[in-house]
Amino acid sequence: MAHLEVDLVAAGGKVWSGSARRVSAPAADGEIGILIGHTPILSVLRAGEVRVQPTDGGEPLRWQVDGGFLSVDSDQVTVVVDEATAASHRTR
């Protein structure tokens, strides 16, 4: 099964790395969603929440970020931020 390879990196080092089905992030001009096969892109991020849906189908992983950038090329997603704080899980 195809998947995204995701790296979330903050100033202090790697925050998370793994396989995902989807990545959502707060782009400067609105929310951006990345799925398998997305065209190459480089986007500036604003403050907000980065969400990663792991391939195992579990709960989305979430981090609050103050800004940074997101790069996508050949199903490799790299998110670089100054700081990432793990968000608490919401209950439905």
Automatic annotation (TrEMBL):
Membrane topology classification: Peripheral membrane protein
Gene3D superfamilies: F0F1 ATP synthase delta/epsilon subunit, N-terminal
A GO molecular function held by the record: proton-transporting ATP synthase activity, rotational mechanism
Keyword Iron-sulfur attached: no
Source superkingdom: Bacteria
Transmembrane segment boundaries: none
Swiss-Prot/TrEMBL keywords: ATP synthesis, Cell membrane, CF(1), Hydrogen ion transport, Ion transport, Membrane, Transport
UniProt KW Membrane keyword: yes
Protein name: ATP synthase epsilon chain
Taxonomic classification: Bacteria, Bacillati, Actinomycetota, Actinomycetes, Micrococcales
